[in-house]
Structures are given as structure tokens and as C-alpha cells.
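Reopening this one. Same input as before:
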Amino acid sequence: MASNWRTVRLGDLVTVKHGWPFKSDRYSHDLTGRPIVVSIGNFDYSGGFRFDSTVAKEYRGDYPAEYNLIAGDILLVMTCQTAGGEILGLPGRIPNDGRKYLHNQRLGKVVVKSRDVNDRFLYWLFLWSEFNRELVNSASGTKIVHTAPARIEAFEFRLPPLHEQAAIAASLDALDHKIELNRKMSATLEAMARALFKSWFVDFDPVRVKAEGRDPGLPPDIAVLFPDSFEDSELGPIPHGWALKQIADIAFVSREAVNPLDFPEEIFEHYSIPAFDSTGGAILERGISIRSNKFLVSHRAVLLSRLNPRTPRIVIPLAQGHHRAICSTEFAVMIARAYSREWLYCLFSNEQFCDKFATMVTGTSGSHQRVKSESLLAMHTVAPSEPIVAAFTDMSASMLGRIASARSESVTLSKIRDALLPKLISGEIRVADAERVLEKSA
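Same output, byte for byte:
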């Protein structure tokens, strides 16, 4: 550890302030121009916010101006359930996206008061497991655990010189930046695949254009596959020659299961709800750490979460090496019968399907509503001809393949980041050593 690092108390560098008790039950996906009350539910386990996958609270009342947030402000989680103690002290940084954010209660705002500390370095310090461990150990409460500004400010650590703080933050920021670029590229490609699916199989654009005697603007070998007229069905007009089918006609649910504890040293590719919410995919875990039976996941599968479907969770599994893939029993492991898994994935991801699926829940608890597999299989959908599905698969497979590659790279980068973080923050390794690791992974 570097000899020129000095032991400091966090409270000597920053002040942590309580938020305002905003009261509102208004939620929206459309956040344009509206103040957003940042809540614990908007925190990602890897740090930061995830408004793209969480319905955000909005507020329209009066409040003190000091609870407005600006881009770059750091908030810390100060209250959570005991089972989620790993997020106590988790930081989130207000994005520079032109939207207005408000500082809610149960979150602490970090106000830097010393020139001896770099705010980017602080962000990574708050992601350090030692910081979380001290907050958990000093927390109060049983089912709900709480920390406080005084407990946060009491944390002691060794502070490197400013230039080294900046270098540490820059190294970790570089990994996060690449992960974020992969996320944005994947979001764009996924939006393109979904838009193509909606155009062909929901709005029936090529059929409508051909019915009007116009060119659909597709390659001739694809355009000829679409009919030029509609016929009536129980769901309204559908393309001539297409059919209404139940999901059970085009896919089945695989229930093949395994108990990972029977294979304690085996590394599994584990698709869990927390892993999806954090990475969009799976994490690698040894069987000894997975405490309940799981479904085996075929390379042909699409995973559709039955839990709380108002937050859609749909996955095309990505093989990470030669590990067996498993998933939470909250997922339905769907295998296409005749159609491709790319088509099935886009069907399940379509907004129209998701809205209908979300109405089929059972259970009264808002946090544990589920759709039964039988209800899923009984849903109806418009089934096109197999040649059109094949054409769609050819066009979408490359997009979804690039998403899978980006996700795989991000998983690797996340592992490197998470391995380097404690070593850099504690001074166990220097930035030059970290740069050599990054060069080898490039």
C-alpha cells in the first residue's frame, strides 16, 4: 500500500444531507419535462440509475428549492430491507440528460466540502465492499435496516493524493464508459428488431401497402411472401392466409430442473431476476451458492418472467463458455416449435403482447403477482407463414447476435472492474498495474 496515502474520516471531506419527504403516488413512463423524485427502486445494484426499466415517480407539488438536484450529484441509499443490505450506501449519480431530479427521503446527498478529494473517486469509494460492510455492521433495524449521515461520515479510509484519485477514477470510468456504450448500442439494435417485428406482424405494413397497390419497399424475394389482402378474425382483420393460434401452438414450456447444490463446484450460467435487472443477462455462479432448484435452459430457449410482468423481463440466453445454463423458476423457459427463437423473443417483447400479458396476473400482493404458465400458453397471437418468419429471422438474427456479443463483452468488463475496484481503492495495486490488466483484456 502506498506510503503517501493518509487515513481520513469521510466526514472531514463531505457532508451527507437528508432528503425531503415527497408524498406522491403518481407514476409515469413519460418523464418529459416533469420533476422526477429519485427513489431507492431506481438504483441499480452496480450503481447508478435505471429509469429505462423502472417506472419513475413524478411530483407536481411545492417543495424547498434546496432539494433540486443537478447533474453529477451523488446520492446514497440509507434505508433498505435486511435481505437487500448489500445496497446500503450504494451510490447513484444524477445524469446530465436535461431532466429535473428531486432529492427524496431515505437517500443521502453527498456534498463535498474539501478540495482534497475528487468526486469521481468518491463515487467508486462508495461502491467499495468495505464501505458497504461498515454501514451494514453499524445499521439499525431488523426487517428494514437504516443508516444515517453521521454513520456514513464516520467511515475511515486511506486517501491517496489528488492526482492518484483522478487516475483511479479514470481507470474505472473507462470500463464503465465501454459498458455504457455497449448498453446504448444494444438498446438501438433491439429497438430496430422490435420495430421491424411491429411493422410486419402487428401493424402489417407490407400487407397494407400491397393492398393499396404500392411497392412495400422490400427486396422482391421478401415482398412476394406477403399477401395483398386481409381476412376477418376474432382479433380483427389479419393478413390473408395467416392464422390465429395459441402460444401453445407455437411454443412449449420446458420444466426440466436441476438442484445446483448437487453440483457444488460446478459453475452455472445463472439467469435470475436480480441478474437480469442488473446486467440484462446472467451471472456465473458455483452450485454451492445457489440455494434452490432451477430450470435448465436450452440454447433454443427464450426466457419470459412471469413475476410482476408490468416490468417486462425477456431474455435470449447467451452461452458463456461451456457452462450449463439455469434460470429462476420465476421465468417460463419457452421453446419455439416451428418458428425461430428470434421471432418468439420479439413477440414476447412487443408492447401489445406485454400489455395483455400484464393483465393476466394472479395474487393480491403488488410485489409478487405472477402469470400462470397455463394462462400464457392460452394467449392468442397472429401466426404468419413460416417463410415470412424465416425472412424476419435472417434480418433480425444479426442484430440480436450483436446484442449478445456486446452483453458478453460487458459481463467480462464488469468482472474486471469489480476485481480492480477494491484493489485500487485500498492501494493494493497501483494504476499502472491496472492499465496492464486492461491492455490484456482489450
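So the earlier flakiness isn't reproducible anymore. For the record, The mean pLDDT is 88.
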